[in-house]
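Customer escalation, tier 2.

The customer says the design service returned an amino acid string that "doesn't look like it belongs to this structure." They asked us to rerun it and document both sides in this ticket. The original structure tokens are below, unchanged.
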């Protein structure tokens, strides 16, 4: 069963994504910011990490940089969600990170489809066992 970490400061959205993914058979943990997410990485293995780009405290960019420094093998597992693609700085950042992203607002079917695709095409050697 794939394990997924969902990080978003919007509690309702975070829980909606988590419930939808659990209904698809995934094991899902949640965090409200990048700092909490980093703590969760210390004791768990995740097949996919979904993170908002803009959060208070450690945001998606900061989380990406910490993962690059401390756990670079996890970079392939990151999926960003953001409502800020109008901002040129955000678009530049997403391009530099070279990771897939979904724009808010999105439908649950959209995120489920993207998650399913990423898990299906993920390299076996980066999968949790």
């Amino acid at each position: 069963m794939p394990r997924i970490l969902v990080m978003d400061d919007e509690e309702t959205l975070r829980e909606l994504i988590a419930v939808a993914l659990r209904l698809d058979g995934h094991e899902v943990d949640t965090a409200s910011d990048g700092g909490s997410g980093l703590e969760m990485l210390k004791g768990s293995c995740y097949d996919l990490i979904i993170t908002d780009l803009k959060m208070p405290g450690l945001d998606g960019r900061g989380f990406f940089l910490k993962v690059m420094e401390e756990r670079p093998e996890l970079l392939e597992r990151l999926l960003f969600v953001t409502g800020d693609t109008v901002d040129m700085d955000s678009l530049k950042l997403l391009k530099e990170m070279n990771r897939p992203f979904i724009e808010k607002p999105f439908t649950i079917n959209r995120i489920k489809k993207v998650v399913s695709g990423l898990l299906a095409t993920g390299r076996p050697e980066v999968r949790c066992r």
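Tier 2 assessment: The sequence is consistent with the input. The chain has five helices and five strands. The chain has a mean pLDDT of 89. Sent an explanation to the customer and offered a walkthrough call.
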